Each structure stands twice: as C-alpha cells, then as structure tokens.
Amino acid sequence: MEKLNKFQKIINKIYYLLFIENFKGKLKFNFPLNYGRIELIDYLIKKNKYTDYLEIGCDKDQLFSRVDIKNKTGVDPVSGGNIRKTSDQFFSNNKKKFDIIFIDGLHIYKQVKKDILNSIDCLNDNGLILVHDCMPDSLSKQAVPRYRMQWNGDAWKAIVDLRQSNELDIFTCEIDQGIGIIRKSKNTSILQINKPIKKLKFKDYFENYKLYLRVISLEELKKIF
Question: What are the angstrom distances between the C-alpha of 203 and each of 24, 109, 155?
Fold first, then answer.
C-alpha cells in the first residue's frame, strides 16, 4: 500500500470532505475474530480440491506465505509474492489458469473491477475469485483519494457494478473487512439500482450495503460454496 506523508493526508482529507462527500454515519460489523481470509481460502482449497492459486497484491506476504496449495503465484509491483509486476502487466502476458484468485491490490473501484474482469478470463471451471476490503465501516475508510492508514478504498463499487451482470454470481461474506466471492455462473440475484456507479456515495452504501453487496454470513457461505 502506498505511503502518504502527513501533509498529503491533510490535503486529501480536505479535498474529499469539501468536494466529494462529508457523511458521518458509521456501520458496525460482526467480523469473526478467529476466521479470516486464510481460513476461508484454506476451506475452499480443501473442499474443492483446488491446486492453482493466484494472489494480486501480496504486500509483505502476510497471506501468500500461509496459503497451502500445490501451485501458487503472487503478483505485486513492490514486495511479496513471486512476480514483480503490476496486475495489468501480469494479466497482459499471462497464459495460466487458476482455481482460486484472491484480489487485494489497489483498492480503487476502476482497478478492482479491471482485476476482477482479468481474473475471470484466467479462471478455471468451478473456480472462485475472492475480493478483499469490500465492507468499509466509515466514509474515511473508503475515501478516494485516501487520507488515512487503515483503508478499504471503494472496492465495494466494483462488487455493486458487477452484480448487475447476468453472467456472474456474487456474494459478500461478512468476515475480514468484507470478502467478495465471485463465480462464473448465472446470476441468481441480479442487482438493480437507479444510479450510475460513478454517482454512488458512501451514504448510498451506508443505507443499502446488504442489498448492494448481497451480504451473507460465514455459515451461509459454507452452505453455498
């Protein structure tokens, strides 16, 4: 994740609150304390007998080093993983297929959507795409440009956007800052909204996040996947 100096944080905050949105509502989520991304990935690998894993955005290998699978590829332009490229550079030349893909790169709507669409093109049948940081609890955690260290970005907008597709079935599990789960199959609950994505604000998400993201519990997830 990029580092921001104190001055840049202040400038970004002023700009966002003055020109984009100023909303003080805060959500409270019940993320399990003992079950996060590694436990979910481990569960899906074992249940589906997956052998090929791709991680976009590895940081310091907090996750990548713990994933137990036959073949794994980690992509990050700065550190971690085993391929030093941006996700765009990686996907432009990639010929491999994967069973499970975890997206945790740049948490900005357009890039997250691009990473998802590129991931779909290299996903094996019966494969799954997971997207991290889909459930920010406050405006400051989703603001773009970013002005705080703990940050989810507006990845949630990519989930909302693609939930309107007929060809993708998407849920969001209420664990570990919100994890989107995407499979290539008929959409069993097409989202209909009356605003274009570019006009959605955090206030819209605050009032509609369960509908927008198709939020499910961990128990519900294990019945579906």
Answer: 9, 16, 15
Give me the architecture of the 6-12+27-224 domain, per CATH.
3-Layer(aba) Sandwich (3.40)
Q: What predicted TM-score, i.e. pTM, was given to this entire model?
A: 0.97
Q: How far apart are CA 149 and CA 12, in angstroms?
A: 12
In 3-state terms, what secondary structure has residue 183?
Answer: strand
Question: What distance in Å separates the CA atoms of residue 149 and residue 108, rounded to the nearest whole number?
Answer: 15
Q: Residue 119 has which token pair?
A: 């991931």
68-94 residue pLDDT tens: 999 999 999 999 999 999 999 999 999
Q: Are 24 and 206 in contact (CB under 8 A)?
A: no
Band of residue 51 on the pLDDT scale cut at 50, 70, 90: very high
The distance in angstroms from the start CA to the end CA of the chain is 30
